[in-house]
Design a protein that fits this description.
With 177 residues, the protein is an alpha+beta fold. The structure holds iron/sulfur cluster.
Amino acid sequence: MLVISYDLEVFTPPCSPGALTFSAIARLQGNIAPALPYLNAVLPNAVYNPGAPALVWKDGRRHVVFHADHLAVSNLEDRNAAVEQVERLVRLVNETWQERGQIEPSYAVRQRPTPMMLYKLLPGTNCRECGQATCWNFALKLGAGQVTVADCRPLADPIYADRRAQLLASVIEDQFV
Ligand code: SF4
């Protein structure tokens, strides 16, 4: 068993005061870095970053990032959901590690998104609410890690939910370090 126990912290992201969703961080007793290539192999659409090391995974509507000594999950309905999901994710890590003899590890890494890829997912209205003159400027800064997805407030509109999720999946590891 890789993860013996963990400390759980549940919070509302500071970039979204009053938000109706929660995030959670579980600080792990144990190093799960060796398990990340195995999780990369079994989780659909996971994105592995061996340099961090970290593994980003979109679990339905939730965003999960596995780090060596902690895991983070966002877009949780409430605190009970946080407890349940973290417990499920820890079980997933331990079971995957236990079964590693039957799994071919994957060291495939993601491509870093280009500013154009990020730009195409933004609303494209150049409204300046983010403090940038254009959405293109915002895309450049997002790619450089100088702003976060939450800084584009229009993306919180449900009509952009899918684009927002894609953006978060692209850059989420930088926001959970
Ligand atoms: S807030 Fe969003 S939509 Fe408005 S300019 Fe910035 S990136 Fe574009």
